Protein backbone atom coordinates (compact mmCIF):
# COMPACT_ATOMS: atom_id res chain seq x y z
CA UNK A 1 0.00 0.00 0.00
CA UNK A 2 2.78 2.45 0.90
CA UNK A 3 4.64 1.60 -2.31
CA UNK A 4 1.47 2.27 -4.32
CA UNK A 5 0.95 5.61 -2.57
CA UNK A 6 4.52 6.68 -3.28
CA UNK A 7 4.20 5.61 -6.91
CA UNK A 8 1.09 7.74 -7.27
CA UNK A 9 2.74 10.71 -5.55
CA UNK A 10 5.87 10.45 -7.65
CA UNK A 11 3.91 9.93 -10.86
CA UNK A 12 5.59 6.64 -11.74
CA UNK A 13 4.03 3.71 -13.57
CA UNK A 14 4.74 0.02 -13.37
CA UNK A 15 6.81 -1.79 -16.03
CA UNK A 16 5.24 -5.11 -17.01
CA UNK A 17 7.61 -8.07 -17.25
CA UNK A 18 9.22 -8.05 -20.67
CA UNK A 19 7.52 -4.76 -21.52
CA UNK A 20 8.55 -1.12 -21.70
CA UNK A 21 7.78 1.77 -19.41
CA UNK A 22 4.77 3.88 -20.20
CA UNK A 23 5.00 7.68 -20.06
CA UNK A 24 5.25 9.17 -16.61
CA UNK A 25 2.51 11.46 -15.40
CA UNK A 26 3.21 14.59 -13.33
CA UNK A 27 3.07 14.17 -9.58
CA UNK A 28 -0.27 15.38 -8.19
CA UNK A 29 -0.01 18.50 -6.06
CA UNK A 30 -1.39 18.07 -2.52
CA UNK A 31 -4.51 20.12 -1.95
CA UNK A 32 -3.50 23.39 -0.29
CA UNK A 33 -5.15 24.29 2.98
CA UNK A 34 -7.61 27.18 2.92
CA UNK A 35 -6.98 27.93 6.59
CA UNK A 36 -4.00 27.22 8.84
CA UNK A 37 -3.36 24.21 11.01
CA UNK A 38 -1.18 24.20 14.10
CA UNK A 39 -0.70 27.18 16.38
CA UNK A 40 -2.01 29.83 13.94
CA UNK A 41 -5.41 28.09 14.16
CA UNK A 42 -5.65 28.17 17.97
CA UNK A 43 -8.22 30.47 19.57
CA UNK A 44 -6.24 32.62 22.00
CA UNK A 45 -5.46 36.20 22.96
CA UNK A 46 -8.92 37.28 21.81
CA UNK A 47 -8.31 36.00 18.29
CA UNK A 48 -10.43 33.27 16.68
CA UNK A 49 -7.63 31.59 14.75
CA UNK A 50 -5.99 33.35 11.81
CA UNK A 51 -8.30 34.63 9.07
CA UNK A 52 -6.23 37.50 7.64
CA UNK A 53 -8.05 40.16 5.64
CA UNK A 54 -11.02 38.06 4.57
CA UNK A 55 -13.51 40.46 6.17
CA UNK A 56 -12.30 43.35 4.01
CA UNK A 57 -12.07 44.26 0.33
CA UNK A 58 -9.63 42.73 -2.15
CA UNK A 59 -7.05 44.88 -3.93
CA UNK A 60 -4.20 44.11 -6.32
CA UNK A 61 -0.73 45.61 -5.94
CA UNK A 62 1.37 45.85 -9.10
CA UNK A 63 3.70 48.65 -7.94
CA UNK A 64 5.81 49.31 -4.88
CA UNK A 65 3.78 52.39 -4.03
CA UNK A 66 0.51 50.46 -4.05
CA UNK A 67 1.92 47.63 -1.97
CA UNK A 68 3.36 49.89 0.72
CA UNK A 69 0.09 51.80 0.94
CA UNK A 70 -1.98 48.64 1.29
CA UNK A 71 0.10 46.97 4.01
CA UNK A 72 -0.05 50.22 6.01
CA UNK A 73 -3.85 50.49 5.73
CA UNK A 74 -5.91 50.18 8.90
CA UNK A 75 -8.54 47.43 8.82
CA UNK A 76 -8.93 44.10 7.01
CA UNK A 77 -7.64 43.84 3.46
CA UNK A 78 -6.76 41.06 1.01
CA UNK A 79 -3.71 42.22 -0.96
CA UNK A 80 -3.01 40.33 -4.19
CA UNK A 81 0.62 40.74 -5.29
CA UNK A 82 1.06 40.63 -9.06
CA UNK A 83 4.54 40.83 -10.53
CA UNK A 84 7.72 41.95 -8.77
CA UNK A 85 7.51 44.46 -5.94
CA UNK A 86 10.88 46.05 -5.12
CA UNK A 87 11.21 47.28 -1.54
CA UNK A 88 14.04 48.10 0.84
CA UNK A 89 14.68 47.24 4.48
CA UNK A 90 11.77 45.67 6.43
CA UNK A 91 8.34 47.18 5.84
CA UNK A 92 5.68 47.06 8.56
CA UNK A 93 2.41 45.16 8.08
CA UNK A 94 -0.68 46.23 10.01
CA UNK A 95 -3.11 43.67 11.51
CA UNK A 96 -5.87 41.83 9.63
CA UNK A 97 -4.18 41.42 6.27
CA UNK A 98 -3.84 38.67 3.71
CA UNK A 99 -0.85 39.09 1.39
CA UNK A 100 -1.06 36.55 -1.42
CA UNK A 101 0.71 36.22 -4.75
CA UNK A 102 -1.24 35.91 -7.99
CA UNK A 103 -0.46 32.58 -9.63
CA UNK A 104 3.32 32.22 -9.63
CA UNK A 105 4.00 35.89 -10.33
CA UNK A 106 4.15 37.45 -6.86
CA UNK A 107 7.70 38.46 -5.90
CA UNK A 108 8.93 40.70 -3.08
CA UNK A 109 12.50 41.65 -3.88
CA UNK A 110 15.22 43.45 -1.96
CA UNK A 111 13.44 43.89 1.37
CA UNK A 112 11.14 42.07 3.77
CA UNK A 113 8.00 42.22 5.88
CA UNK A 114 8.02 43.28 9.52
CA UNK A 115 5.38 42.55 12.17
CA UNK A 116 5.45 44.84 15.21
CA UNK A 117 2.58 44.12 17.61
CA UNK A 118 0.64 42.96 14.59
CA UNK A 119 -1.80 40.05 14.46
CA UNK A 120 -4.11 38.05 12.21
CA UNK A 121 -1.94 38.20 9.09
CA UNK A 122 -1.55 35.64 6.31
CA UNK A 123 1.45 35.64 3.94
CA UNK A 124 1.08 33.13 1.10
CA UNK A 125 2.36 32.33 -2.33
CA UNK A 126 5.13 34.95 -2.41
CA UNK A 127 8.69 34.50 -3.68
CA UNK A 128 11.03 36.50 -1.44
CA UNK A 129 14.33 37.32 -3.12
CA UNK A 130 17.49 39.14 -2.05
CA UNK A 131 16.17 40.60 1.22
CA UNK A 132 18.84 42.92 2.58
CA UNK A 133 17.92 41.84 6.14
CA UNK A 134 15.19 39.34 7.12
CA UNK A 135 12.58 38.32 4.55
CA UNK A 136 9.90 37.94 7.24
CA UNK A 137 10.33 39.20 10.80
CA UNK A 138 7.55 38.35 13.27
CA UNK A 139 8.40 40.43 16.30
CA UNK A 140 7.37 42.45 19.33
CA UNK A 141 4.51 40.29 20.66
CA UNK A 142 2.83 39.73 17.30
CA UNK A 143 0.50 36.75 17.16
CA UNK A 144 -1.66 34.65 14.85
CA UNK A 145 0.55 34.83 11.77
CA UNK A 146 0.38 32.20 8.99
CA UNK A 147 3.39 31.97 6.63
CA UNK A 148 2.45 29.48 3.94
CA UNK A 149 3.51 28.30 0.46
CA UNK A 150 6.26 30.87 -0.04
CA UNK A 151 9.76 30.55 -1.46
CA UNK A 152 12.78 32.14 0.20
CA UNK A 153 15.89 32.88 -1.86
CA UNK A 154 19.12 34.57 -0.72
CA UNK A 155 18.15 36.78 2.23
CA UNK A 156 21.19 38.47 3.76
CA UNK A 157 20.05 37.51 7.26
CA UNK A 158 17.14 35.24 8.18
CA UNK A 159 14.41 33.91 5.91
CA UNK A 160 11.91 33.87 8.82
CA UNK A 161 12.52 35.21 12.34
CA UNK A 162 9.93 34.81 15.11
CA UNK A 163 11.13 36.75 18.13
CA UNK A 164 10.41 39.09 21.06
CA UNK A 165 7.40 37.38 22.60
CA UNK A 166 5.57 36.50 19.39
CA UNK A 167 3.40 33.37 19.35
CA UNK A 168 0.60 31.41 17.69
CA UNK A 169 2.47 31.22 14.40
CA UNK A 170 2.39 28.52 11.72
CA UNK A 171 5.09 28.18 9.05
CA UNK A 172 3.92 25.65 6.46
CA UNK A 173 4.63 24.38 2.94
CA UNK A 174 7.46 26.84 2.24
CA UNK A 175 10.51 26.22 0.09
CA UNK A 176 13.73 27.38 1.77
CA UNK A 177 15.81 27.38 -1.38
CA UNK A 178 19.51 27.20 -0.44
CA UNK A 179 19.03 29.72 2.38
CA UNK A 180 21.66 30.11 5.09
CA UNK A 181 19.93 31.27 8.31
CA UNK A 182 16.53 29.80 7.62
CA UNK A 183 14.48 30.33 10.79
CA UNK A 184 15.24 31.84 14.21
CA UNK A 185 12.88 31.59 17.20
CA UNK A 186 13.97 33.72 20.14
CA UNK A 187 15.81 37.02 19.85
CA UNK A 188 18.90 36.40 22.02
CA UNK A 189 20.20 34.48 25.02
CA UNK A 190 19.46 37.51 27.22
CA UNK A 191 15.79 37.89 26.20
CA UNK A 192 14.31 35.25 28.52
CA UNK A 193 11.87 37.64 30.19
CA UNK A 194 10.02 38.39 26.98
CA UNK A 195 10.33 35.03 25.21
CA UNK A 196 9.86 32.42 27.96
CA UNK A 197 6.41 30.87 27.72
CA UNK A 198 5.85 32.42 24.27
CA UNK A 199 7.15 31.50 20.80
CA UNK A 200 4.45 28.85 20.30
CA UNK A 201 5.14 27.89 16.69
CA UNK A 202 4.16 25.06 14.34
CA UNK A 203 6.55 24.27 11.48
CA UNK A 204 5.27 21.68 9.01
CA UNK A 205 5.64 20.43 5.43
CA UNK A 206 8.49 22.79 4.58
CA UNK A 207 11.24 21.91 2.12
CA UNK A 208 14.61 22.77 3.64
CA UNK A 209 16.44 22.31 0.37
CA UNK A 210 20.19 22.64 0.69
CA UNK A 211 19.61 25.26 3.38
CA UNK A 212 22.41 25.42 5.91
CA UNK A 213 21.13 26.02 9.45
CA UNK A 214 18.31 27.19 11.76
CA UNK A 215 15.49 24.85 10.79
CA UNK A 216 14.72 26.27 13.33
CA UNK A 217 17.13 27.51 16.00
CA UNK A 218 15.04 28.01 19.16
CA UNK A 219 15.54 29.83 22.44
CA UNK A 220 13.05 29.72 25.33
CA UNK A 221 9.91 28.85 23.28
CA UNK A 222 7.64 25.90 24.14
CA UNK A 223 6.15 23.98 22.58
CA UNK A 224 7.70 24.39 19.16
CA UNK A 225 6.28 21.66 16.94
CA UNK A 226 8.44 20.61 13.98
CA UNK A 227 6.68 17.96 11.92
CA UNK A 228 6.50 16.43 8.44
CA UNK A 229 9.28 18.59 7.02
CA UNK A 230 11.76 17.46 4.38
CA UNK A 231 15.39 18.19 5.25
CA UNK A 232 17.81 17.70 2.37
CA UNK A 233 21.55 18.37 2.41
CA UNK A 234 21.63 20.72 5.42
CA UNK A 235 25.34 21.29 5.88
CA UNK A 236 25.49 22.76 9.40
CA UNK A 237 22.44 21.42 11.27
CA UNK A 238 18.70 20.84 11.19
CA UNK A 239 17.01 21.78 14.48
CA UNK A 240 18.68 23.37 17.51
CA UNK A 241 16.85 23.64 20.84
CA UNK A 242 18.70 25.94 23.24
CA UNK A 243 18.18 28.03 26.37
CA UNK A 244 15.64 25.61 27.87
CA UNK A 245 13.34 25.71 24.84
CA UNK A 246 10.99 22.76 24.36
CA UNK A 247 10.90 21.35 20.81
CA UNK A 248 9.05 18.29 19.47
CA UNK A 249 10.55 16.93 16.24
CA UNK A 250 8.34 14.26 14.70
CA UNK A 251 7.49 12.66 11.41
CA UNK A 252 10.23 14.46 9.48
CA UNK A 253 12.51 13.10 6.77
CA UNK A 254 16.22 13.95 7.09
CA UNK A 255 18.34 13.22 4.03
CA UNK A 256 22.11 13.79 4.05
CA UNK A 257 21.84 15.98 7.13
CA UNK A 258 24.98 15.33 9.22
CA UNK A 259 23.60 16.97 12.38
CA UNK A 260 19.79 16.68 12.44
CA UNK A 261 19.29 17.97 16.01
CA UNK A 262 21.15 19.73 18.80
CA UNK A 263 19.75 20.07 22.32
CA UNK A 264 21.68 18.70 25.33
CA UNK A 265 24.92 20.27 24.13
CA UNK A 266 23.31 23.62 23.30
CA UNK A 267 24.60 25.41 20.25
CA UNK A 268 27.25 28.08 19.72
CA UNK A 269 27.14 30.22 22.90
CA UNK A 270 23.56 29.21 23.80
CA UNK A 271 22.94 26.74 26.63
CA UNK A 272 21.07 23.44 26.40
CA UNK A 273 17.45 23.09 25.39
CA UNK A 274 14.97 20.25 25.54
CA UNK A 275 14.10 18.20 22.46
CA UNK A 276 11.99 15.10 21.92
CA UNK A 277 12.17 13.21 18.63
CA UNK A 278 9.87 10.47 17.43
CA UNK A 279 8.90 8.75 14.21
CA UNK A 280 11.51 10.49 12.04
CA UNK A 281 13.45 9.02 9.11
CA UNK A 282 17.24 9.58 9.00
CA UNK A 283 18.62 8.72 5.56
CA UNK A 284 22.37 9.24 5.26
CA UNK A 285 22.14 11.48 8.32
CA UNK A 286 23.59 11.61 11.79
CA UNK A 287 21.82 10.99 15.08
CA UNK A 288 19.27 13.39 16.55
CA UNK A 289 20.46 14.66 19.93
CA UNK A 290 17.60 14.61 22.45
CA UNK A 291 17.21 15.96 25.96
CA UNK A 292 14.49 16.17 28.62
CA UNK A 293 10.73 16.36 28.10
CA UNK A 294 8.54 18.72 26.09
CA UNK A 295 4.95 19.97 26.46
CA UNK A 296 2.79 18.09 23.96
CA UNK A 297 1.31 20.24 21.15
CA UNK A 298 -1.87 18.14 21.48
CA UNK A 299 -2.64 20.11 24.62
CA UNK A 300 -3.24 23.04 22.23
CA UNK A 301 -4.48 21.48 18.97
CA UNK A 302 -5.27 18.20 17.23
CA UNK A 303 -3.21 17.10 14.25
CA UNK A 304 -2.63 14.10 11.99
CA UNK A 305 0.85 13.16 10.77
CA UNK A 306 1.68 12.03 7.27
CA UNK A 307 3.89 8.94 7.18
CA UNK A 308 7.50 10.21 7.31
CA UNK A 309 8.55 7.94 4.43
CA UNK A 310 6.04 9.79 2.21
CA UNK A 311 7.22 13.26 3.21
CA UNK A 312 9.81 13.86 0.43
CA UNK A 313 7.26 13.20 -2.31
CA UNK A 314 4.51 15.15 -0.59
CA UNK A 315 6.66 18.17 0.14
CA UNK A 316 8.35 18.27 -3.28
CA UNK A 317 4.92 18.21 -4.89
CA UNK A 318 3.29 20.75 -2.61
CA UNK A 319 5.77 23.26 -1.18
CA UNK A 320 6.49 26.68 -2.66
CA UNK A 321 4.59 29.13 -4.85
CA UNK A 322 1.95 28.50 -7.50
CA UNK A 323 0.23 25.81 -5.47
CA UNK A 324 -2.47 27.60 -3.51
CA UNK A 325 -4.93 28.56 -6.23
CA UNK A 326 -4.04 32.21 -5.58
TrEMBL record:
SMART domains the record matches: Amb_all, PbH1
Transmembrane segments: none
Signal peptide per UniProt: 1-23
Presence of the UniProt keyword Lyase in the record: yes
InterPro entries named among the record's database cross-references: PbH1, Pec_lyase, Pectin_lyas_fold, Pectin_lyase_fold/virulence, PEL
Subcellular location: Secreted
Gene Ontology MF terms: lyase activity
Gene3D superfamilies in UniProt: Single-stranded right-handed beta-helix, Pectin lyase-like
Domain Pectate lyase: 54-260
Keywords in alphabetical order: Carbohydrate metabolism, Lyase, Polysaccharide degradation, Secreted, Signal
Sequence similarity: Belongs to the polysaccharide lyase 1 family.
Protein name as annotated: Pectate lyase
Amino acid sequence: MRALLLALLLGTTAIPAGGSATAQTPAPVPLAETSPSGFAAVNALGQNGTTGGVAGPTVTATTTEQFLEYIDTTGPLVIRVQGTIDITSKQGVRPNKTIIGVGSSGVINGGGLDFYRSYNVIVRNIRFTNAEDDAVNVGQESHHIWIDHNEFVAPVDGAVDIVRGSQYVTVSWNWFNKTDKSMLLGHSDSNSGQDTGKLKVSIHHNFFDGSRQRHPRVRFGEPVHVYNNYYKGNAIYGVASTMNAGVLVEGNYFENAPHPCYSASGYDESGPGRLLQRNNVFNGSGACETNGTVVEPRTYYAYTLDAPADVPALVRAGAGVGRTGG
